[in-house]
């Protein structure tokens, strides 16, 4: 299996550009079923004649390991989303045969791609991803006198590895040139002086020699050898296009657009920027391939050599600024979340204000992608941010995002407030997106209402800026799901799904986003429907059999967590234990700190084990104490400590349980304004039950009936189950004596039918909620 990743001087500021274009050349995207050769290209082999050769070899070993509880290997590193995607596609491509990766134009590779290329051959990474042990890399770069290295430090670091072997190949010398021209089709009797003149004009360059040979075979020496080098190249590359008449003029126009975009380009971008009909543009692209001006297929193409591309990019022939201006709208629609590329294109269009805003958004995106930092942005993008006066705003928003992830809500909101109002519309929207996410996360109904109001003000922005608008609307969807009437939330979800489905044909991320909506189905659906949707999401992001790479580890973690939680909801405890064993194996497989809220994962696993009869309440209390000590979250302790208190109660330590509930209630009231009803009811109902079981003298029925009012305000879709349970549990308080275990089973033993199998979970006397991740932050 051969795959070519091409460096492009105009994309050296875009992270992972060579890999992005190479992988898009594979049919059916990353989930394609059959590895297909992405051709080396006509000039990739010829380039070896004029290049230094860098060859990296990895030791061959057999086998690949599946993700699962029995898997044993070193901690995996989580790359950026783009790198993880590339790793997954490379593994898929190499499933049936070893992979040869040709790193062409290495001197033009961006720093991120050079670093990633080095990591692919790192011994530690090969231990985690066995398919890399069979990877072969041939890197090709032009000698210094032809081209310069764009990122010297990253380039030198990549070539400093011990596995690098160098080969320098000489140029075509004058005595060999006649043989070369003849091999390319020049007449055998071409005069020696013509051969010498063409050698002087071409410098022995194979692409030019091939074109000159074809020209000689059609027209003879003519006046070719009397031209200047510039005129010589124009004649070679323009002659064939001009010979096509009107079609040639159309081809020339299209190739000018493609050349302005880069040595490599996407079909969709050229079609969008072309002033004619889309079908006509696609037909012209096919004709360009027939004329051997470009090569590729499916969705990405490249000029067969940069010399040809340079001819069509001649500023005397093309207004590059105008092309980049047209591309701004195209990229906004086609690749709305590729802020780094959009920023660089805006700079080429001389739209510096827009470039600064897009650069800021690229910086925020890098922060959301936990494996990247602002330093990973290209210098060109960082300079655009500084020149646009947005460096301070970006710094504040980045720090606010980090504070949000750490549950430092006041700090988050204070940092957002430092961003001046009156900046560009997209900057204001990004600030409000972070602020609203923070307000939603506080478990305060007052704050959630404020967050919903803030997000409502941005309705419709998804039609202008899809990625930004979609993120805002997903936060709003969560906010609406936290209201008792789910009608507006379901309507918004339908609208988002419809928009995503319309983008699936050209936006690869749309499929991911559709399944991310499925992952959060528990917020708007009943447990049986949510179970099906979360299972679908987990299966979508899961690695296939015999694959070791998870394309999006963080999203797979969230989906698997929610799927396991929904298995508990539906009282499928054995299946839930199996799912959580897989989840815990995933956590253990990666470096600590990779995944958020692993306390939820471990807590849910223990809950399933208790309900499934695998552990006793005493064992559960002991293990829960360990989970809290190792993984607990001080800012948001409620679910884990509630479970710990219940486990203490079930094991007979009622005083210990009451002490825990007192601490939790105090913390909730001290840190939350108007706490959410679900948390008030959770802690209140369990504490009331423990007080009753401990024999306290209080009006238990009055307290219990008061909690019923709180229960009616809970926004979860399962509130009807809880209301029925609450009614039946009222009877238990008239019993003379109950053990904690008898109280826990009181309803399901006396009223076993009710809501089917899931009643074994929702009918329990003690509330032990399984926990899901419905938000990304």
Summary tags:
5 domains; 38 helices; Arc Repressor Mutant, subunit A; mainly alpha; five-stranded mixed sheet; 8 strands
CATH topology of the largest domain: Serine Threonine Protein Phosphatase 5, Tetratricopeptide repeat
In total, the number of domains comes to 5
CATH architecture of the largest domain: Alpha Horseshoe
Text of the CATH class of the largest domain: Mainly Alpha
First-to-last CA distance: 40 Å
Tell me the CATH superfamily of the largest domain: Tetratricopeptide repeat domain
Unreliable spans are 28-74
Shape: elongated
Radius of gyration from CA coordinates: 31 Å
Strand count, sense and barrel status of the largest sheet are: 5 strands, mixed
What is the β-strand count? Answer: 8
Assign the structural class, choosing from mainly alpha, mainly beta, alpha/beta, alpha+beta, or little secondary structure: mainly alpha
Instruction: Quickly count the helices.
Output: 38
Helix content: 55-70%
Strand order of the biggest β-sheet:
1-3-4-2-5
Protein name: Tetratricopeptide repeat protein
